[in-house]
Design a protein that fits this description.
Radius of gyration: 21 Å
Largest sheet: 6 strands, mixed
Structural class: alpha/beta
Number of helices: 10
Strand content: 25-35%
Shape: globular
Distance between the termini: 32 Å
Length: about 290
Amino acid sequence: MRLSIRSVGKLYQGRVRALDDFSLEVGPGVLGLLGPNGAGKSTLMRILATITRPSEGHVTWDGHDVVPRPDPLRAVLGYLPQDFGVYPHLNAVEFLSYLAAVKRVPRAVARKRIPSLLALVNLTEAQKRPLGGYSGGMRQRIGIAQALLNDPQLLIVDEPTVGLDPEERVRFRTLLSELAGERIVVLSTHIVSDLESTATQIALIDHGRLLTAGTPEALLARAEGRVWECVVPSERLPALQAAHRVSQAIRRADGVHVRLVGDEPPVPGARAAAPTLEDAYLAAIASPVPA
């Protein structure tokens, strides 16, 4: 089970380049695609889901190019797009039964699988309620259920926790971790905390290009020695923000407690700090993209 992305680019009309020479090898586990809004994450996800064709490059699944022949990948693909819509007058069972038919899941298989999926996403008690009355978190969970109808080997979820409350976000992250197992889960987000407890591999993307990729531990190691904490007067904060990537600024009685990323101590007396995943992300974004 291997997903290979090789020199993929996407150029939209108007000469807008959403992806540029993007290459990555992905195996079983959770791959987190992390980057700011507009970085190209959703474009890459649509290409992997065989919805959008790349302008150049190749995507292969177990060695087979899926651009000219997408059907073999589609047979083992589950996809939850960022803007997932439901039929508000259908209940969960009706909705999943309809999508199972669309995905050509045999009726007998779907009949057995739908109750187990509803239990997996904790919607058994709400299965007869119209989807129009579901909360945002419940709709995301029914979205995961539909993506799992065909027991996919590749599960793609795009910005799944946007708009969810903290409790729903934690529940969703836990569910994705449990689903990884022997499948590939590709999770796109701009929320660093979504990946801290789920991702086995993280790819940082900005302006359509891959900045770096690796395990969370490897990304943290690359940020060692580049994270600082200091206390400065309020009037000096704008200068620090202009010169460095500031991840935190808390105003207290003795001044502004600042946490930032930089190659050198920003002020005399600044203390080196152990990097977090957010620091590693900011350090990569702050570094120049290779030509």
